[in-house]
Amino acid sequence: MNKKQQTTPLFDGLLAHINQSPVQFHIPGHKSGKGMDPRFRDFIGDNVLSLDLINIAPLDDLHHPSGIIQEAQQLAAEAFGADYTFFSVQGTSGAIMTMIMSVCGPGEKIIVPRNVHKSIMSAIVFSGATPIFIHPEIDDRLGISHGITTEAVKKAITAHPDAKGLLVINPTYFGVSANLKEIVNLAHSKNIPVLVDEAHGVHIQFHEDLPLSAMEAGADMAATSVHKLGGSLTQSSVLNVQGDLVSPNRIQSIISMLTTTSTSYLLLASLDTARRNLVIHGKDQLTKTIKLAEATREKLNQIPGIYCPGKELLNEHAIYDMDPTKLTISIKNLGITGYEVEIWLRENYKIEVELSDLYNILCIITIGDTEEKTELLIEALRELSFKQQTYIKEHQNEKVSVHVPNIPTLSLSPRDAFYANTEVVPLKDSAGKISAEFVMVYPPGIPILIPGEIIDEDNLRYIAKNIEVGLPVQGPEDQTLKTIRVIQERKAII
Ligand SMILES: Cc1ncc(COP(=O)(O)O)c(C=O)c1O
């Protein structure tokens, strides 16, 4: 390890600046908290407020880094095995939009799995790119979508060798990875850059028992949420870049176009210190985390009606590797929905899960967890299983069918649909019409419908089912979801 990885140039630069007690005639106007609501100031404390600074010359500028931010980004690039790292204060969503907009312009093709996060679809609308969808592998046992297979990528690349980029989610929200290296090699054989949504994989670079990271697999760019699993503050992410299929200068100018000019130094300093921690302590911390997660998985699997999948699911296709720190807990055999389990855990054990859907809850285990906490989760689920024992016994030989919605047909580019003349119709009467809006359940934020897709009865049933059980369906202007904006139909002239 380069000894410089022990240092935090950005955080230290900020501390050195504060220690000089400069007289501040610049924003932020609260001036280290003095001009702020006292209750909030007292709660968050002087240290935090003194770091809430702005891009004055001694503190460098994220838009044109040449000082302490540049040094911190270079250390991050070395840590992630990248040629360049760009800090993002617009979350991974901002980094994803930058990746897409730096390779695709209007009408150009980008190959993407359909089960992508809404930021990818937003970038497709902004750039005017044409998405070539690859259908993800659907898991009928769990009722979730995984990633894409090498075979599906091969088909898409053969049919669209002129694509300007291929986007891969690695790993998925549920911790599943495809054979990314093989996919990258395939795309590179046609000079197509590979863009990785690594929102759920900042830690995988730092432990050999975790799936290959985007940079290790040779991908060209990766948008990586340091804030989700890497110990930095919420909203702080990185965009890692390598190779010569993409231009770092163009990436710098696009990330700058999409970024606030008032960049938060709290977020930036947290990226600098998180990188140091991951390099120095990441491996040990992850070893403990993996052990705790595996022990929890084993105990969960002994509870009647509960299934927490692990390495037994691995295959040569979409489930090539798996991050064991993600506990996807299938509860479909308990006779209640994941959302009901989420509420029950909140009300009875004050446990908050990462997400729930119709058939599962997802719990993430990190270095912040202890055996005491995981034991509470196990105890809670044991009690719930006991409460449901009559249902479990009566249905034990039944195969519970899961419903994953059809992927609708795209009939217009998302951008054309987004800017077309539209009308509002009752959602229940919208089958056959073209959606002009996004509809998704958040989290995970994967669209059920995107602008340009033809709404079908199956989508409507799936939306209704999610609303009925109380899951957070979002997207349309009409938050009650009674109506949806669709493309206006032209009246026949005669
Ligand atoms: C798969 C995936 N990609 C991208 C994002 C966006 O990340 P962020 O919230 O940092 O903008 C998320 C957020 O949940 C996600 O789940």
List the helices and strands and how they pair.
Blueprint: H1 9-19, H2 38-44, H3 46-51, H4 68-80, E1 84-88, H5 91-103, E2 109-113, H6 118-127, E3 130-134, E4 138-139, E5 144-145, H7 150-159, E6 165-169, E7 176-177, H8 180-188, E8 194-198, E9 221-224, H9 226-229, E10 237-241, H10 248-257, H11 265-300, E11 321-322, E12 326-330, H12 338-349, E13 355-356, E14 360-364, H13 371-387, H14 389-394, H15 414-419, E15 422-426, E16 439-441, E17 446-449, H16 457-469, E18 473-474, E19 483-487
Parallel strand pairs: 2-3, 2-6, 6-8, 8-9
Antiparallel strand pairs: 1-10, 4-5, 7-11, 9-10, 12-14, 13-14, 15-19, 16-17, 16-18
Helix pairs in contact: 1-11, 4-11, 5-6, 5-10, 7-8, 11-13, 12-13
This protein binds pyridoxal-5'-phosphate.
Account of the protein in words:
It contains 16 helices and 19 strands. The protein has helices at 9-19, 38-44, 46-51, 68-80, 91-103, 118-127, 150-159, 180-188, 226-229, 248-257, 265-300, 338-349, 371-387, 389-394, 414-419, 457-469, and strands at 84-88, 109-113, 130-134, 138-139, 144-145, 165-169, 176-177, 194-198, 221-224, 237-241, 321-322, 326-330, 355-356, 360-364, 422-426, 439-441, 446-449, 473-474, 483-487. A hairpin with a 4-residue loop joins β16 and β17 (446-449). α12 crosses α13 (371-387). Bound molecules: pyridoxal-5'-phosphate. The site of pyridoxal-5'-phosphate has 15 residues, from α5.
